[in-house]
Amino acid sequence: MTRNLNSIDNLLSLNSASESLLTKKQREHLKVIKSILQQQEEMFKTGKHSIFNRIVNIHQPHVRPIVRGKVGSNVEFGAKIGVSLQKCYAKIDTLSWDAYNESTDLKKQVETYKKIHGYYPELVLADKIYLTRENRAFMKDKNIRFTGKPLGRPPKEEKSVQVKRKERQEAAQRNQIEGKFGQGKNKYGLNNIRAKLQKNIGILDCYYIPCDESG
Questions:
Q1: Which is more confident, 172 or 109?
Q2: Which of 98, 125, 138, 198 could form a cystine bridge with 62, CB 3.0-4.6 A?
Q3: Same domain, 7 and 97
Q4: Quick one: 22 and 109 in the same domain?
Q5: Which of 1-15, 24-38, 126-140 is least confident?
Q6: What is the pTM (predicted TM-score) of this model?
Q7: Which domain, by its residues, includes 121?
Q8: What is the pairing mode between strands 65-70 and 80-86?
């Protein structure tokens, strides 16, 4: 590949109007191919099988492989979406093509809630991936209650029936956010957006899904 790219560069250098020889799309593809070559050479020299911001598609260099560990689909290609459910409305807080750790979304979502409503939420119902030590300390500092198992050894005293019932109810409320993805795809046409262009990343920045038709 290096020899081919060098041949192309040499041919372009022989023509003073080299910019007109290639279309804009061809120049973009050539730039991406050179970046892919650099990444492949770096992985070969270091003996690694992955690299930061690895390009897997010449036509869509912004798309990243995201390991999900799902049955039949261990790796997915697309954008990661961070969604929060506030006052019966689902709001997209983060939409990124990068394979980042979702736990970093929590602080931003909580601060966004305060910016919109003027106060911090009383309770945060989050998946265990969000309940890192840093996020737990942040919510404790803001006097925000959250669900999830406490860190460390389990307490010796058994929880009362009322406390267990309350925890189950709150855990069930968190399941509502899981259904919002199916609702958005099947009822509100979210599944019809198939474009994976980098310029379309802001298409869903303020996408709201109400709880029902009257919401």
A1: 109
A2: 198
A3: no
A4: no
A5: 1-15
A6: 0.60
A7: 80-210
A8: unpaired
